[in-house]
Design brief:
Order of helices and strands: EHEHEHEHEHHEHEHEHEHEHEHEHH
Radius of gyration: 21 Å
Bound molecules: (2R)-2,3-dihydroxypropanoic acid
Shape: globular
Strand order of the largest sheet: 8-7-6-9-10-11-12
Number of strands: 12
Oligomer: single chain
Largest sheet: 7 strands, parallel
CATH topology of the largest domain: Rossmann fold
């Protein structure tokens, strides 16, 4: 019996490709070329499975051109690159890569918060540029993390990881807002208090965004929300571009409406709003929150396991649209 055909749309760990090739006829993209939607659709012709990252869009137009596709396995926990309704309507299973990246991403969220509040990147650029001539009392004086109020918007697994770090490691007072409130047991474990979005914006000394991107969360933080924050506050986005109105944020940073921001994700990335590139009080990183070697390998292996589990036994590990499984 011939093996199912699978396309790995982006460069990936060679050992993961090797695992996949034990089960499938694999077409890969180890040169990591950037494919247009049209090219991706053309390459998907005749494939039963596709291994994607958060950069490849799987929507109705693409699915109409790939009638043999049965599964798209995302090497990401976020899946706003998938049109889930269109995939379900076409009987295409969607899977993501949750859990394996939670702690690594929470570590990074905290690192970005610390770099932002303590002005680490800005001061390093100053030193490298040869501008440091003497110690002075207010040189790159930032804000404290210990004992401050940590606000978290979006309290899923990663948000909870950040809350634990803040509350238990740094004695922070943690407040959060989420679509649904955590159980009392989880709130106690995270030492986190539920507040309205308005209270969160007003009270947080450091606000971290960890909510999924959807039409409902588009520009959840724009000019009006930034105006409600403390002028001394910092904002960190490790969720998705589009949750923050980057133009409004650049203006708020330039006008010192808030003190500083740390951004790992951007609207329209890899492009970055030019206004963000020219303000000093922002730390910018290229969507690397989950990028430790063991975690990226675990994410890739989970995407591969989903392809193998579904295409060889009908049993994916982390399905997103169970309705496709129910249909058989
Ligand atoms: C995720 O897993 O969603 C990360 O943002 C990587 O894309």
């Amino acid at each position: 019996m011939s093996k199912p055909a699978v396309l790995v749309a982006r460069a990936v760990f060679p050992e993961v490709l090797e695992r996949l090739s034990q089960h499938f006829e694999v077409s890969s993209n180890q040169a990591d070329d950037t494919w247009s939607a049209d090219e991706l659709a053309a390459r998907l012709a005749g494939q039963q499975g596709v291994f994607t990252t958060a950069s490849e869009r799987i929507d109705a137009a693409l699915l109409a051109r790939c009638p043999e596709l049965k599964i798209a396995a995302n090497m990401a926990v976020g899946y706003n690159n998938f049109d889930l309704d269109a995939m379900t309507a076409r009987g295409v299973l969607a899977t993501n890569a949750p859990d394996v990246l939670t702690e690594t991403t929470a570590d990074f969220g905290f690192a970005l918060l610390m770099a932002t509040a303590r002005r680490i990147a800005e001061s390093e650029h100053y030193l490298r540029a040869g501008q440091w001539t003497k110690w002075s009392y207010d040189l790159f004086a930032g804000s404290d993390i210990h004992g401050a109020t940590l606000g978290i918007l979006g309290m899923g697994r990663i948000g909870q990881g950040i809350a634990r770090r803040g509350a238990h490691g740094f004695g922070m007072d943690v407040i959060y807002h989420n679509r649904s409130r955590l159980t009392p047991a989880l709130e106690a474990e995270c030492k986190a208090r539920y507040v309205s979005k308005e209270e969160l914006l007003r009270q947080a000394d450091h606000l971290v965004l960890v909510l999924p991107y959807s039409a409902a969360s588009h520009h959840a933080i724009g000019a009006a929300e930034l105006a409600q924050m403390k002028p001394t506050a910092t904002l960190v986005n490790i969720a998705r571009g589009g949750i923050v109105d980057d133009a409004a944020l650049a203006a708020a940073l330039r006008g010192k409406r808030i003190a500083a921001a740390g951004l790992d994700v951007f609207e329209g990335e890899p492009a970055v709003h030019p206004g963000l590139l020219t303000v000093p009080n922002v730390v910018l990183t290229p969507h690397i929150a989950s990028a430790s070697v063991p975690t990226r390998l675990a994410m890739a292996n989970l995407a591969a396991d989903n392809l193998i589990g579904y295409l060889t036994q009908g049993k994916p590990l982390t399905p997103l649209n169970d309705a496709v499984l129910a249909k058989g």
